[in-house]
Fold these 4 entries.
Entry 1:
Amino acid sequence: MKTTDKHPRNRTAPLLSTVLLLAVSAAAGADNAATKIVRGTYYQNPLSFGTTRDPDPPKYARNASELGIDSLLNVKWLDVGLDSRFRYEYREGDLRRPMDSLDQPLLHRTRAYIGIKDVLDPFRFAFEMQDSRRENSQFVRDNRDVNQFAIIRLYGELYFKSLLGHDPIGNSRPLSVRFGIHNFDFLDRRLLANNQWRNTANTFKGFYASLGQESNNWQLDLLAVQPLTRQKYDWDTPVAQQWVYGAIGHLRSWSEVITLEPFYLALNQSAYAGVTDYTVHSPGLRVYGVVGSTGLDYDFSFIYQTGTNGTRKVDAYAGTFEVGYTLASQPWKPRLSLFYGYASGDHNPNDNKDNRFQRFFGFGRAWSANDYITFQNVSTPTARIELKPHQKLRLDLNYSAYWLASATDVFSVGNVIQVQDKTGASGNFLGNEYDIRARYTWDAKTDITIGYAYFQSGGYVQKQLHRDHTNFAYFELSRRFF
């Protein structure tokens, strides 16, 4: 039966309030947990592949006092950044294109950042602009590659440094409330990410609050934002009638051994102009850590989804599992890892249940170097080797196999085109991917990346997209100016 709720956005409030109360209660109790800290922070960086979040301010930004300019030595209230990235791509048979082709696009991305802090506290301010362009391609420009002179960060912030006291090792526990335009990474970046690999960024407009900071033993992030639609040649605009809500907890009292990140996300699309009413609630838990000096690390997550899609009930789930082992005593410090990821697909489009997992706004690079796979209707194991032959050089070699979780549901190819065989006669095996990447730090401000990925098509792709294999090679040069 179709819902008669004229304000579907309000259905999020009761569950969100419950999650907030539970998260705050758990966080408060974390102060009394056993603590073994060997640094001035409780934060443990995950070793799982591709899950390190972009810092805030962004990693290309520098404090003005650190630029080596005498007149700025005392200007500690200002952060500035400017960087440029160029990437050449060779794409043969790209599955995301409507025809078998050879394309060699040139991608350019330039970013600039200004942040003001301390001097006007509690008021702070940040601004970031990104200019994204693509040349030398035979295909029509799209907003994955082109977003000229886009504001990707513009917010005012109220920042109270020690309003919530201090944690057991003395770090202040601030309260921060921001309003404006944001780009951010959360959790393992598979649900919410600014998408560093893609030439354009995911951005949101609205409220973002944080109780605590990354160095604390507990922290709670709160979101109420609208996704922005990337306009190629105009200012980005909010997606009509769509909101994302979130409460993300971080419990770090156990330091390296275990970090718990319980979370709740919700996406609400109100019905308008032919768009179906859609509401999904996504409670989940991420657990990661490093097991002492054993060399073992792990990263697990599980998400359940419920809600409504028009008259259908949402009933979906997803999970990821990664275990790694680092041979620290070896010269190249190899890390060997096994990963498995699963996201449910819709079993039967004609019943009253929607089993397709909602991927939110995550990044796809960790799923596929070719950018073919999204966190939706997929089952994939991956084996990986990461090496560091030199202080300036990092290598990773990967093998992945891909199946559809449901052979009758949609295959969303890189979130660009959609393919579906409702009969299931094409099977569910998508194919195998082999890829290698080398990252070289030329100097303190310059990085070079070279990569290659080969995709061997499975039966589904051969029948639906008529491709036997694809080749993808790229060269990337990134330069920071401060």
Entry 2:
Amino acid sequence: MGRPHVARQITDAVRTCRVAHVHGPAGIGKTSLVAELALGWASSAPVLWYRVRVGVNDTLLAVLFELAEHLRSHERPHLAEVMTASLPRIDSSLVSRVAISELSHLRGVIVFDD
């Protein structure tokens, strides 16, 4: 498939399903393509690019922390406040529910990149 066709498919999937999984062999340009699309999306909605690194930030709590900081930077501090109040033992199921609630009211894109 040509790249414009794939870009259109990804954009349509994000628009209609709110989820797109871009996959394929290493080195074919998946990250570059999604980065180009995200640059365009960023003009109308916040984009959080989360680069997953095995053994470094591949846990749910790590993702929730980054999400909380992203939301705080967009004047939505509630998730970060809940996480801070939960220290030192953060209940990931409770914090996940707060995250979903916070995200349900916002327009934006989260990219998980490996």
Entry 3:
Amino acid sequence: MKTIKLIYVMAFMFIIASCSKTDEADVSFKEADVTTESKIDRANDDISDIVENQEMATYSNSISGREITTTSTTFTNCATITRVPAFGTALTPGTQVTKTIDFGTSNCALDNGNTVRGKIIISFIFQPSATSHTITYTFDNFYHNDIKFAGTKTFTRVMTTNAAGFVRPVVTMNMDMTITFPNGDVFTRVGTRTREIVEGYTTPSWTDNIYQITGNWVTTRPNGTTRTATITTPLKIRLSCIAQQKPVTVKGVISFVSGTNTASIDYGNGDCDNAAVLTINGVSSTINIGN
């Protein structure tokens, strides 16, 4: 009888210990995690911009279109771009197009200061009369700020008209990424991130562009725990902040759930600054999110 009781006691203690370890892992959201999340977000935005830029360049000039520097926030002269069918070949509707953007094997600075190396390969069907375009893209030894991205993704660009009659592209990025940081930590992220330009699309300069971003995703961390993120207040991206060496995310809220714990990042009131408010389980503090 004593043996049976001892077994029950040991089993109960094991369950309590397991729960404590899970809670401890869940509580691990702190300022360092904000930095990790923002680095992945920054890369996703740059990748989305590069892919959109190269797909739209094909429609701007189907024979020799390589880039649209006046509207790109990121494009750089470091890249070598090749295409199948080859540049110089006229495209007809229905043609399968594959473009390889090769940034080389050494870090190459984008216009916004971030660095990349490796290749992004995009593929799509040339349909100039369509209002919706789907692009598949994959990475070949691709790094963004020395963080490696791997996997094959899809990207959808839809030209839409808002209530004010403003026509602009709405881009939805379907994320299914494996991300390896320089220290060897591996993260995976699955979800969607939708970006629409709300100001500046019709001007020749990209510096006055303002974007709105919505979406949700799940990030799995190196220890196996997961964090669900939802943009609960649309993010506002102001590209003019680049000139001030400030982060371009200036407004909006991302909310996180990890086990029984909650957190949020509030990016502020729209000013170009480094401050954000991090709230973990109801306790708030002002943090510096860096460039």
Entry 4:
Amino acid sequence: MLKKVLALAAAGVAAFATVACEKAQLLAPTQSTITISAASRLLPSNGETEVTAAVVEQAGTPVQNGTTVRFTTNLGRVDPAEAQTRNGVATTRFFGNNSSGVARVTATSGAASGGTANGNVVEITVGTAAVNTVTLRANPGSIGPAGGSVELVATVVGENGQPLPGILVTFNADQGSLGSSAATTNTSGEARTTLTTSQQAIVSATAGTKTSTNVTITQRAGPIVSISCAPAAGTGNCASVPASATNNTATVLFTVTRPTGSSALRTATLDFGDGTSQALGNIGGGTATVTHTYAGPSGSSVAAYTATVQATDINGESQSASTNVIVTPRAPLGVNLTGTANGNATTAGQQWTFTATVAPSDTVVRSYEWDFGDGEEATTTGNTTTHVYEAEATARRETVTVTVTTTDGREATGRTEIIIDDLP
């Protein structure tokens, strides 16, 4: 019985020893060397990267598979904290954990060291601490004369020029309003926002301790044009231009000016306000003059027109200017008829000369139709005619009329009374 108990006890001790051996960690032997490396040495605050530790013995051969390596860090975290080697290499992952700074990740195993160069420590710069340079650009780089919006693009890179994603960038502007005052960089290291302003603005971007140089959003000069109008004949403005009696039209002269300070024009067009227009080009000389003829009113009211010049500059900005043209009715058609006896009455009669004077004086007459009052009539194209009246024993009175017809179809009548002398 005693032998049996002793045998069971011995078996138990042996089993315990076996389990203890299986649970004991395999560590690197004395004078082994650990060299640690990271796939990325620059990370955003929430980034992660693979970390590997290569462990070799003094002879330069990899340590035995399954050798335990422990990883520690002063910033962020490593997972797993312990890993076993395979072909001398143990692997873990480092996580930034939304932190910012320089993480020192250390690998240890037994009596192994990092050598004289501390090869068992790797530094990983995390978050804004990784920022080396912030550059800022605006697209477009200017706003129009009435203001506008531009896109601000901040680019964040590390020491080696590597774009840094996940970096918080703050924007600042001395004028206008920002769509967002902060943005996070994308995979290209770019953070974006918009600026809306009505005047020149100076902007900058900051990531961590780095701030970009200032960028000035300039305000472009816009197109400037003015227009004036004067009668083509005479002086004054176009607030009251009489229509011609000849053809019931009024001709005016427009002067379009692009003053100093205007942006360079691409094109300008003058709309006369009567359904017609004329291209003026870019008014490179500063002024352009254009004559135009307007139709006069058909009745007693005025004919009103608005002439507008529309200018577009090389940036696509536009501006317009207008002036009014008022065409007043032409003067009414009038006829003054006079008659003159060409001597005393004789048995042959008495000859008279008649002259029709038409007003306005520039009226173009097509025909004069004369009624001499004694049953005789005549038609002429000139304004003077003669007629012989039969003389009688007593003097008599006659009414002479002339009807004037103009080339544009208007008519007017003039009258006069004459006394025919009696026979001597």
